[in-house]
Amino acid sequence: MKDQEKTKEQLIAELVAIRQQVDVLEALQIQHQQTEQALRETNDRFRLLVENVQDYAIFTLDSNGYIDSWNIGAEKILGYQEAEILGQHASCLFTPEDREKGKDDQELQKAIEESRSLDERWHIRKDGTRFWACGILTALRDETGSLRGFAKIMRDMTDRKRAEQQIQQQAALLDVTTDAILVQDSSDRVLFWNKGAERLYGLPAESVLGLNVNELLYGKVPPPLRDIRQSIAKKGSWQGELHQVCNNGQKIIVASRWILISDFEGHSQSILVVNTDITEKKQLETQFLQAQRLESLGTLASGMAHDLNNVLSPILMAVQLLMMKNPDEQSQRLLQRVENNAKRGAALVRQVLSFARGFEGEHTILQLKSLIIEIEQLVKQTFPKNIKVYTSIPDDLYPVSGNATQLYQVLINLVLNARDAMPNGGTLSICAKNLLIDDEYARKHIKACVGSYILLCVSDTGSGMSSEILERIFEPFFTTKEVGQGTGLGLSTVMGIVKSHSGFLKVESSVGQGTQFKVYLKAVEQTQMQPIQDIKLPSGQGEWILVVDDETPILEVTQTALELYNYKVLTTSDGNRAITLYLEHRDQISVVLVDMTMPSMDGSTIIRTLQTINPQVKIIATSGLSSNRHLAQTTGNNVKTFLSKPFTADELLNTIHSVLHMN
């Protein structure tokens, strides 16, 4: 009985335990149902989210790569509606060239092997347009690891791609430009250095990044950083000219523009610097300004020379007449000294005129070799023995068109300067060679033209010149010599003569290293030597000469000289009176001597009036300005010759005799 009761209790306990387990199972079932419901709701929300995302194309593929789902974002980005794309292979979204290369299959294979595949490439829309997309393809597997399909997410990155391409193009432009472009931080450390900077300064970018730009480009002469930084802080930019030094030590001038670069919050971040090399431009500007300055001084000097020539003309003629009348030794000695000083003054005036307008003597075809040999002999005979002379002249040296006397003066002035620069001796070199100037050289030198030239170099090993002196050596009356040792017109004369020969001049010098002058003269093809004729001093045969000049001393001395040599002379200082005298003595007057710069009625008007009276009249034009030679020539064939003041009695007599016996 007792065993039966225990069995009954055990059955009840077991029933209770079973009931509890049933309750647990029911609770678990309810929880499972709730979890499934939540999962379904989550899946529905995720599906709705995926389907309605418009910025991303999200779609799935079966295990063979065929599309089996398609969201709204895919419709927007790729242009296909869900109904028309489902069942198509994903390769239709690839470009033809990528399909030919098998990129579509490679992407699927990579996702299978590595679980996912990331790529950025061009894709094709339904309408055939291309877009750049970033995509992730993920392999989908079940619990057993079997492949169930693929999921792909794509985003249109075309705008970013185009922006990157634009940045790359701009970066390429930064490297193509000849300007040096660099970026420096607030501590002047280089952050960016383009190809233009590499070319200009001779420093590769990898060698300068992080270095102090001031130490790299300015050497011992730092830029005006204080002014630059104040301008940048106030205006955000600065521009001006800076002197810089390249890696090879060459000094350059740049037009520099500095621009402040700020971050998105407006904080100063760095400075963009753009430097343009204007060294060549500044050199040409300097040459142009110097030419303008010399031209202005030349106009002033020309007027002075005219007045001085009028003063010197009667002195020179009077001295020669006095020497004829006073043959005693003391008189001859004193008069010779006066004549020498007057001629020295006349030579000084000619130098002034050559500087002002260039010599206008007759040009013939010349060989410079003979001039150089003559100068060499003169130097060896007259220069100190501690100065050695070296010459180099090729046998095939081109001829030039020029005036032998003027080119001789160029050489004399240059070798004299070389001698004075070597008081303790040295070497004087005179070299000539043929030279062909090309477009590039002509572009850099304002006076040069493309063609054949003779390059004449005169070099010395003397004291040399500083850059400050070098800038002024061609200025008239500028000299570094002691008082009484030089006029300061030697190199101005050289410059004037070279310019009158359509040439140009360069000079290189440094203190203690000597000086080299380079004279460039245009070459010609043919050669022709001009014979020199000696004309004896003639006397007249009682011919009448009418002299017209506004300077009374010139009239008086000219009359004395002509009468001394058997001429009859009429003089006047007035143009109207000259016409009257010619009308009265037309049949007796053989030659008219006319000054071109007469007051009231100038020389040109007098000449034209005389030609109207007598078309056969013979006229000699005179002037203290060599530029009036052309003016006289334009008045007609009656002007037989031009006599430059100051002239001697010998020159006057020879000229009149030549005109009288002219056919």
Automatic annotation (TrEMBL):
GO terms for molecular function: phosphorelay sensor kinase activity. It catalyses: ATP + protein L-histidine = ADP + protein N-phospho-L-histidine. This is histidine kinase. It holds the Pfam family HATPase_c. Residues 42-115, 166-236 form the PAS domain. Its EC number is 2.7.13.3. PROSITE patterns: HIS_KIN, PAC, PAS, RESPONSE_REGULATORY. Keywords: ATP-binding, Coiled coil, Kinase, Nucleotide-binding, Phosphoprotein, Transferase, Two-component regulatory system. The modification 4-aspartylphosphate is found at residue 595. Residues 544-660 form the Response regulatory domain. Residues 117-169, 238-290 form the PAC domain. InterPro entries: CheY-like_superfamily, HATPase_C_sf, HATPase_dom, His_kinase_dom, HisK_dim/P_dom, HisK_dim/P_sf, PAC, PAS. Transmembrane segments: none annotated. Residues 303-525 form the Histidine kinase domain. Residues 1-45 form a coiled coil.
